Amino acid sequence: MQLLAHDVLDVPEVVAKKGHSTNLVGIPTGLLASDAFNRAGLPLHLAGVREANRGLFSMLDRADSAEHAATLFTAYMEVVFGLHPEQRGPANGTRDGRRRYRASYARLLRGWAYDSNNPEGAVLKGWVESRFGLFPTFHKEPLLSFSSPAWVRYVEEKMGSRFHNNAIFSQLDLVYEFVQWSLARFLPRSRTLLLYRGVNDFQEHPISDVIDRRTVVVRLNNLVSFTSQRDIASWFGSYILEAEVPACKVTFFNALLPQTPLQGEGEYLVIGGDYRVRASYL
């Protein structure tokens, strides 16, 4: 693993600044992005989300299983955001009876499963940027500067009107809080989760510090996929990054809801920042 020591990159503008000075979790963004925060395992909550949806979380508290809770959550989202096909109805003023398009969290997750660098991925990264204050560091290519064409393309995709309707960020807020509720309810002692990510190089994950021959600190994108299964991680790259991910940084996982597009790969969507990882070469 001596190769890793030569992969330490000059810090680009986006990576150096880490994120906005404000967020919705009440913790300084620089601290949230740090490896020290990951090891502390502090809880996180998006301001006002549970308070504005007390009815949902009261119902969830009475759920007797993860499956029951998932059914309640899915039904609540369908009712509140009109996600059931019968609720969309024909579009006003159209002759062909086409249904109105309503953006949904499930559609974004399906898009991410297909390609995390597509417009759906940009919206999800934009949500993390908005709520947690962390800048993305990669979208199709490294985001090295706010004035770069790559950053402009990212902004255009994350703000595209195609997905910015039906209170899509509010939907994602509820998904995150449901994830946190589920982990606290059904895995109450799991402050961290051992997860894996396969990579071929460190272009997308610049190394900021080398601890020893196998342990490095990498700057992960503001939203990044991991898997709970090491052998699956090996499908995606020659290097396997093994990380202790704090439960509070998990935004979605494959077993949370039935019929999700992430079922087959044990996938977890994780808020990024600086992570201390153990890197091994296959």
What's this entry about, in short?
The chain is built from twelve helices and eight strands.
Describe the overall structure.
With 282 residues, this protein is of the alpha+beta class. The chain has one domain. It is 37% helix and 20% strand. The chain has twelve helices and eight strands. It has helices at 13-17, 29-32, 35-40, 49-52, 54-61, 66-81, 85-88, 105-114, 119-132, 149-158, 168-186, 230-233; strands spanning 138-139, 141-142, 192-199, 207-210, 215-227, 239-246, 250-253, 267-281. Strands 3, 4, 5, 6, 7 and 8 form a six-stranded antiparallel sheet that branches. Helix 5 packs antiparallel against helix 6, helix 6 (66-81) packs antiparallel against helix 11 and helix 8 crosses helix 9. The relative contact order is 0.18. Mean pLDDT is 88; it is low at 1-9.
Number of domains: 1
Helical segment count? 12
- Sheet-strand content, in percent, reads 15-25%
Uncertain parts: 1-9
H/E element sequence: HHHHHHHHHEEHHEEEHEEE
The biggest beta sheet reads: 6 strands, antiparallel
In terms of quaternary structure, what is this?
single chain
The helix content, as a percent range, equals: 25-40%
**SS elements, strand count:** 8
* Structural class by helix and strand composition: alpha+beta
- Overall body shape: globular
Evaluate the radius of gyration: 19 Å
Distance between the termini: 11 Å
Mean pLDDT figure = 88
